[in-house]
Amino acid sequence: MLILVASLLVASPALVSGESARTEAIQPTTFKSGVDLVRVSAAVRDTKGRLVRNLTRDDFIVIDAGVRRPIADFTSEESPLSIALLFDVSGSMELARKVVAARAAARHFLAWLQPGKDEAALFVFDAALREVRTFTSRPAELRDALDRVEPYGSTSLHDAIAAAARRVAGRSTGRRAVLVITDGIDTSSQLSASEVSGVASAIDVPVYILAVVSPLDHPGGDDAASNAARSPLAGELVDLAQWTGGHLFVTSAPAQTSVAARQIVSELRHQYLIAFESVGTSGWHPLEIRTRDRKLTVRARSGYVAGTAGRSHPI
Asked: Mean pLDDT, to the nearest integer, of 187-200?
């Protein structure tokens, strides 16, 4: 995958809360050191799709731009979640009552968060991104806000994901992510899927996409995850999610939505946090995280942007 470094520098759309525009730049949490320290969150599953939770530092291998790097820091301890919930309010969501199913999907997800511990914010998007509720550890506030969300306008899905990823990167919790609830249709974005994945990968924010579709557009089945590749949405949305260390789920029934929501929260809670020192040239570095056991599958970001020693870098 070739991603231009310049694509990572595209400015995000304005974030609006209520009637006031937010113009301040959102910066990721930083660690200052004489070297670049790169943090990677990784989820591991076995051949049956089950999360693997008992691995150690010695079980992982880090390949940075083709060169193996030693792991400088490692933890598997649980920490609070910080989630940017990105809700599609474009006009296409009015068709086949998709917005009703999307609200239900968001409630399923919020039900798995731990009040007082995890935090989430609600953003809506059509041609622009707007903040409905800022980050809060009270999920009930977000559920109430969902009832007042109505669809309108065109869709800038890719642009909205990039902006939300930048916003959640500023949170101090260990496990951060963007959850997009959409019908998967993009009509007006300036950014491509690969450019968005570059933005999110550079700041280690996995993007999970929960696509709510009509049963006619979905092959069905009890496991929403296993059928995503056979959906008409497969392609750039699958790649966008996977390159960031996230995943695409396609659902057309409440049971599938419940399964997907539970899997996303469980995966985030049991991520391994790996840090290593970046050595080499500045710019985009392709990254591979794998385990010594080749039967296991690792979800982690596809790369990062290296800086120069002594500067501040995302962790």
From this structure: 86
Residues 57 and 159 in one domain: no
| Verdict on whether the full-model pTM lies above 0.90 | no
| The dihedral sign for the CA sequence 8, 80, 41, 247 | negative
Residue 49 has pLDDT above 80, yes or no: yes
Residue 305's Cβ-side half-sphere holds a number of Cα atoms within 13 Å equal to 20
Q: Domain total for the chain?
A: 2
User: Quick one: 170 and 283 in the same domain?
Assistant: no
Residue with tokens 């559920």: 143
Same domain, residue pair 86 and 147: yes
Q: What is the model's pLDDT at position 27?
A: 36
Domain of 181, in residue numbers: 81-269
Query: Phi/psi at 20 (nearest 5 deg)?
Result: -105, 130
Answer whether 188's CB lies under 8 Å from 149's CB.
no
**Count of beta carbons in the 10 Å neighbourhood of residue 255:** 11
Q: Which residues contact 9 (CB under 8 A, 6 or more apart)?
A: none
For 301, the token pair is 């970001």
Say yes or no: 95 and 167 in one domain: yes
